[in-house]
Amino acid sequence: MLYHDFSQFMTTHIQSPQARCILALSGGIDSRVLLHLLARYVRDNQCPAMAVHVHHGLSSFAERWVERCREWCAEEGLPFQVAYIQFDTQGKGLEAAARQARYQALEHYIDEGDLLLTGQHRDDQLETFLLALKRGSGPKGLSGMAASMPFHQGRLIRPLLHCARAEIEAYANTHQLSWVEDESNQDTRFDRNFLRHEVMPLLVERWPHFPQAVQRSAELCASQEALLNELLQERFQAALQPDNRLSVRCLLDCGEAVRAQILRMWFHQFGHQMPSRVQLEHISHQVLQAKSDANPRCRIGNHEVRRFAGYLHYIPVYADISDWQCQIKFNHPVELPDGLGTLTLAKGALLTECATEKQVEFGLDKRCLSMPLWVSFNPEGLVASPVGRKGRHKLKKLFQEYRIPSWQRRRMPILLCGQQVIAVAGLFVDEHFSGSDYELIWSTDTSALAHQCQNWDV
């Protein structure tokens, strides 16, 4: 019966013969049963599939789990991959951090149209619902896990979501499957384990159909959330810009309830952590309604909401690279920190060879190369005279005039000779060093942002 339901589910969700099925294989009983079911389905239908095990390194048995998963995939005839990850728990608990890192690792295996299979079942849905209830969630949180949802370039599907844990255990025993037991699953210091071992048995003993009732409630909440989103879609699209900025004016024209829902819709499209009610209120009151010369922000996990030039931006929390410095020489690309690309001093002829790259070019006089040059990201105390401007101006003032967002102002490479600014990559060359002998080339997507910023409305 379980395989019949699984087969029907898969046939419904596979939209193309080329779509691959990628199984997230932890090695626990749920994903082990899913591996067995998927292998049977592949043999019956000849669809491409593979399994991926994410190695967190949290358990002393992690290497043993890798080998067991490898053995089971070999027995079932499915390709097997291991994704090794490291993560930190800054701003979140261990469970949440591990889950986020796991899904980020799995994204690398999902191409357009592929399906990621995970093993959550009805009892997991009950736990998720109760955790959302504990957090005081609204319809979005209480809708729990969806049987199918967009994921990266494909979709994430949960074929066992309507199955009870008891059904999965019965299937595993009937087919004499083995699996691994994660010792951390018994640790009731974790909220989910506490619910699983201490709370849910009491609820189900008192009300045997409680899991099914919760499943119906979750589906009703999902339906209400979908209705809200449909009704507000026109307003949301009016506020949303092509680069995912959100119009402050459009948001302030809405009532608080509508504004909060539009913000939730905005966060949902990023696929990251959803803000709490307190965070939404902070965005609505402190960030949206801040004075025009303020620099408000609201941190949500590893990202933050910032306001600039009449729009909300959702950006990563960047590392502080103000103290970074590196000498730069002719035709020797400098690798910039924190994924900011490369900076190169080159002759103009190089530009035709690199025409397809996203880059910003500036002309420099050959006198520059007679001095030791450095790259820095700290504008503190520096002044410059951009070509076409009269007088010398502090970089802080120039960044404001060029409408560079505050969070980008210490992420733009500054070319220096001592404390003399030669150029700011992406913005200008100092008039005393302007020429046509060499080019300053910043090869990175971020450099395009500098020019875009100049066209934003204040």
From TrEMBL:
Question: Which EC number(s) does UniProt give?
Answer: 6.3.4.19
Keywords for this protein: ATP-binding, Cytoplasm, Ligase, Nucleotide-binding, tRNA processing
The record's subcellular locations are:
Cytoplasm
Q: What class of enzyme is it?
A: ligase
Q: Does the keyword Ligase apply?
A: yes
Catalytically driven reaction(s): cytidine(34) in tRNA(Ile2) + L-lysine + ATP = lysidine(34) in tRNA(Ile2) + AMP + diphosphate + H(+)
User: Lysidine-tRNA(Ile) synthetase C-terminal domain spans which residues?
Assistant: 373-442
State the InterPro entries in the record: Lysidine-tRNA-synth_C (IPR012796), Rossmann-like_a/b/a_fold (IPR014729), TilS/TtcA_N (IPR011063), tRNA_Ile_lys_synt (IPR012094), tRNA_Ile_lys_synt_N (IPR012795), tRNA_Ile_lys_synt_subst-bd (IPR015262)
Q: Which residues bind ATP?
A: 26-31
Q: Which residues form a coiled coil?
A: none
Tell me a Gene Ontology molecular-function term this record carries. Answer: tRNA(Ile)-lysidine synthase activity
Main function: Ligates lysine onto the cytidine present at position 34 of the AUA codon-specific tRNA(Ile) that contains the anticodon CAU, in an ATP-dependent manner. Cytidine is converted to lysidine, thus changing the amino acid specificity of the tRNA from methionine to isoleucine.
The similarity annotation says: Belongs to the tRNA(Ile)-lysidine synthase family.
Domain characteristics, as noted in the entry: The N-terminal region contains the highly conserved SGGXDS motif, predicted to be a P-loop motif involved in ATP binding.
Q: What is this protein called?
A: tRNA(Ile)-lysidine synthase
- Species whose genome carries this gene: Vibrio spartinae
